[in-house]
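Incident log, structure service

09:12 report received: a user says their structure output differs between two submissions of the same chain.
09:20 pulled the input from the user's history:
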Amino acid sequence: MDEFSIALHESLGAMNESLRAMHESLGAMHESLGAMNESLGVMNESLGVMNESLGAMNESLRAMHDSLGAMDESLGAIDEPLGAIDEPLGAMNESLGVMNESLGVMNESLAAMDESLGAMDESLGAMDESLGAMDESLGAIHESLRAMHESLRAMHESLRAMHESLGAMHESLGAMHESLRPCRELYLIA
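09:34 re-ran on a clean worker, output below:
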């Protein structure tokens, strides 16, 4: 076997090793892409949970809006009894008989106020439940953000592994280039 054939044989052997290393690097890159795909799946699930949490928060805000509307109606109902109290007070200055009637009207007005205050208490209770639901929604969002953070960290690890695989491929290509140099030099000499 002449010198050129020996150099060519050695170059082909080195090229075979480089191709094997490149194949291993591609396998590692495939695994990294699989891990990244799983991370994207987890992130997609986290976004779905966050979307559900935002929907629950929207429902809570709607319930709070309804509670505020009921409270506004209750305050309006209080204004009417207070207006009804003013007229009996004026009549009370004219006679004791009118005063007794006025006291009766006042008693009815106070009963209406008591009902209005009861309605306000129910509205405040509904608001408290809505705030509790919002707190649960915020907790779910926090968990979703934490899951997204973990997914991003896994993606970072996958990208780092891919970077290392590309570095190994670069080294393999460099070794292949070096292994072809003697063959090229012999060819130029020949």
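09:41 both user submissions now match this output. Likely a transient worker issue. Closing.
09:42 reviewer note: The helical segments are 3-92, 96-189. DSSP finds two helices and no strands in the chain.
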